[in-house]
Predict the 3D structure of the following.
Amino acid sequence: MNAAGKALSFAAKALYYGAVALSFLFVMAPSVLMMIVAFNDADYFSFPLKGVSLNWFAEMLENDNYRGSVVNSLKLAVYATALSVLMTLPASLWLYRRTNRFVETVLLAPLFFPLVIWSLGLLQLYGMLGLSGRFITLVLAHAVMVTPFILRVVLQSLREMNRRLEEAAYSLGAGRWSTFRRVILPIIMPGVLVGAVFGFLISFTDVTLTTFISSSGSTTFPVRVYSEQRSEGLNMVVLAWSAVITFVIFLISLLGEKFAKWSRYF
Amino acid sequence: MAQSSRTISGKPFRVEWMLLSPALAVYGIIFLLPALLLVVISFQVNAPEQQLWERDFSLANYERFFTDPYFLKVIGKTLVYCIVVVAATLVVGYLLAYYIYKAKSYAKTTLITLVLTPLFSGALLQSLGWYLLFARYGPINAGLRALGWLDKPFNFLGTDGAVMIALVHAFLPFMVLSILNSLRTIPANLSDAAASLGAGPWSTFLRVTLPLTKGGMIAGSTLVIGLTIGSFATPGIVGQGKIQLLAQIIYQQAIQVFDWPFAAVISLMLLAILGVISALPVLLTRKSRGALQ
């Protein structure tokens, strides 16, 4: 290669690595900034920081309003995920046994269906049934919202399972239920767990669906912050909570990728 | 297949359906019924005090949608957003996916985590981050002023550029993962084969890698278009109510104006647009395949 060619290939490499570095900076910028400003020693947002303090993290635990909405979010996400796992497990067994494109598409549909539209329909349905504002309405809606995420992972685990193990269990005289409980379930358990964590995070962070159908009393953290932000702006307690939640989600993503390689399920 | 036929069809029909029925029942009530309800309501007059079956039917909502230039403008604007966001996520997403794909395995885990974190932390937390970045006294303003490109603080919030950047950021992980997962299915020795046949790295990429990831790019783009058309929280927070996309209008009509029938019409139009767009790649690939034969 001549000198000009070398210079050109060096420039191309520099351009490539520069673009990659900038793209990663872009991906991380909002999360990183949020985690930094929560340490600000001032009672408003400012950049650069006025000083470093942990005050807002202490304040965050004392403020009952926000803590209550975080607890609501956690409860909702746990109930919705549990309900979804309960209906997804049998459904995925069915789909694994008899491949049915139509049923699979229907069950995955909420993934591709715009949430706003579905939320609008739900709002009207709940209104007609006189159920508006009840906690159960949120649990049911969130359970359906997270089902596609859980179904995909569980179904993939089932399809990756060695079919002979199941056949061996039957030929050794195990019944349907005990084959499921003692052979199939232990094998697909990592997939079920990964799916459940996916579902939990999707439910915990949802704004759109919850904004439409929740009542103002029992709302979740994201919806509370969303509606407050639109009317009164941001306060430091919200930023502290957001920083903590972002950090926890970062840790969960890291563990999930390290131990379950869960990015391949997307 | 004697074994599997015993485990599959040897079981009574009723047990098989019991596995599926809880999910189907919940979906029927929580997912399908609301969608049907929207169709019915879109053909009714707005009379919240009456029960669903008492209201008069009318086509006025559709007429209003197609004659009022405002709503057609919002559709146009939403589609422009889609094009910009898909184009940007394709370019940046491919770059990131390719770099991650080539990275060593220990670095891979960390890099994927960096991409997954914004995905899992959801629209709200990420748009709060962008809200701070773009704020009058935020880091972007501080940086531009330090460089001397701005004299006084400029409020980027509520501009199309800011909302587009935040949306590109929000949906980028979906594109990265779609492309990364299709890169992962390429046999490793394929690029060696291309190299041994005399292809340089650039032409290996253009003629081997890129065509083989077309599926991932199409899947990612379809997902990103759907997400952009339905995006709600990000335009709300970064756009500060000044940027009205379709989802925002639906919320406004339903929750603030209480015109449910009209909100239903906008929703169905949004769905129709989405249906046409998602069918495009299927139609196009069918056509090109037909041309080959």
About this structure: The radius of gyration of chain B is 24 Å. Residues 1-10 of chain B have pLDDT under 50 and may be disordered.
